[in-house]
TrEMBL record:
Organism: Photinus pyralis
SMART domains membership: DUF1237 (SM01149)
Protein name per its UniProtKB record: Uncharacterized protein
InterPro entries, A to Z: 6-hairpin_glycosidase_sf (IPR008928), 6hp_glycosidase-like_sf (IPR012341), GH125 (IPR008313)
Pfam family, one: Glyco_hydro_125
Gene3D superfamilies named among the record's database cross-references: 1.50.10.10
Domain of life per record: Eukaryota
Example GO BP: carbohydrate metabolic process
Amino acid sequence: SKPTFDPETGDHLRNEYTFQRRTSAGTETLSLQGNGNPLNSGTGLIRSAFRPSDDATILGFFIPANAMMSVELRRTSKFLKASNKASLAEKLEKWGETLRSAVWEH
């Protein structure tokens, strides 16, 4: 995921994905004009703006979803290897391992 602030200057960087609606419940929309709370760089994790319950996340790196994605990326890479798609399989395997390491780290 891309960070939402510049680590060198501290300036706010608008996220590519935003979601904002008029509501009286804070869990129904993303804070900070639809950007959500700030995200750090270099975590290796994938941002989740909403939880499976459809509530907005406060902490943007939802670990259970990242863990599931890691497993599925590595599983898909095995199918791709068997289908002679070695290059794509290698990319998915590497991404799955990177994500797995990030989950354990964070």
